[in-house]
# Entry
Amino acid sequence: MEKTPHDEKLLQALGCLIKWSVRLLAVLMVFVIMMGVVDVGWTLYEKLMTPPHYILTISDMLATFGAFMAVLIAIEIFINITIYLRDNVIHVKIVIATALMAISRKVIILDLDNTPAEYLWGIALIVVAMSIAYFIVQRYGSDEGGH
# Structure
């Protein structure tokens, strides 16, 4: 099947639309990151102002860590978007690292007293799988054109 000039124009227009969509996602992600930073500050302020004042309990710290990690994950996603804009490819190693950070956040804020064993086994399996994937990509993969 041959590509016609009409097909080429359509593909070019769709590619342009995707490029602008990714740019919009980058702008929106910066907004999300800024709101996340505000949320981290607000969370920390609320925890410090709740009696006993200026003292963070372990649960307060875990809530704050969770908010911090959410912002860091958003920054990693922004980096993924900007690399895609620059190189027009998805870098697998960065995506896997972002996924590892997201599952790490989940582990950090996990309430072990109220989490079923099956859920913990599932998270453990995800962590192991993502770690192996990262190791393989780091060791054997090329991050150039990382589809």
Helices lie at 5-49, 58-87, 92-109, 117-140.
